[in-house]
Design brief:
This protein is of the alpha+beta class and about 80 residues long. α1 packs across α3 and α2 crosses α3. Helix content is about 40%, strand content about 10%. β1 and β2 form a beta hairpin.
């Protein structure tokens, strides 16, 4: 759910390219989960190239993937 929500927000420009996402602490509070759970979702987004975690700066939204044509990736 967290992964899908944040991914949708990136793809529909709610979070603009090169902007910072809210802090892990703020996102964990928003979704009412612990930071470990949030970090798992953030890692999936990083693995897809949607975000970059920058120590000391925060989490930056990267450019949207061009190949997104409505196909869903299966993660096992």
């Amino acid at each position: 759910m967290i992964y899908e929500d944040i991914k949708k927000a990136i793809l529909d420009h709610t979070f603009e390219e090169n902007s910072l996402l809210p802090t892990e602490q703020d996102l964990a509070a928003t979704y009412q989960v612990n930071r470990t759970t949030l970090r798992k979702a953030m890692q999936l987004l990083a693995d897809e190239g949607l975000i970059d975690k920058c120590p000391g700066k925060g989490t930056v939204v990267l450019s949207r993937p061009q190949e997104d044509s409505g196909q869903k990736k299966v993660i096992s």
